Automatic annotation (TrEMBL):
This is Iduronate 2-sulfatase. PANTHER family: IDURONATE 2-SULFATASE. It comes from Cirrhinus mrigala. InterPro entries: Alkaline_phosphatase_core_sf. The keyword rRNA processing does not apply.
Amino acid sequence: QVVESVVELVDVFPTLTHLAGLHPLHHCPSSSFKIELCTEGSSLAYLIRNPERDINREAYSFSQYPRPSDSIQENSDLPDLVDIHIMGYSIRSNDYRYTLWVGFDPDHCQPNMTDIHAGEMYLLAEDPGEDNNVFDEFDHATVLRKLGMLP
């Protein structure tokens, strides 16, 4: 069965917990470092049980991907916090996936959105495998406005 709603990875754990019949997870407070078990996601079991209900075609999912550098290193897929110097921020809708790779300060856990290292833009209807990066072919302000990131 196919579900065509946009979902986020953070929702997988509470969804599986719900489907397994376990107690619902508590939502994490803003400072959750000392909390043993909580979630920032929501159960999406209702989508699996009734995929036609509440399909939000204008929904977006957000992700971020840490990298130690612009080039591939031994720890590229699982860098320690101190080694993260580039962060990829992605927005995905049913139509697009847009990723911006920017400089990152691991000491303050802050991105530098003016230090752009690279970008990715995929038109999912034409390129569902995300093989053709058209980042350099687009007016980025128009794309960001469509994705709701600019007024």
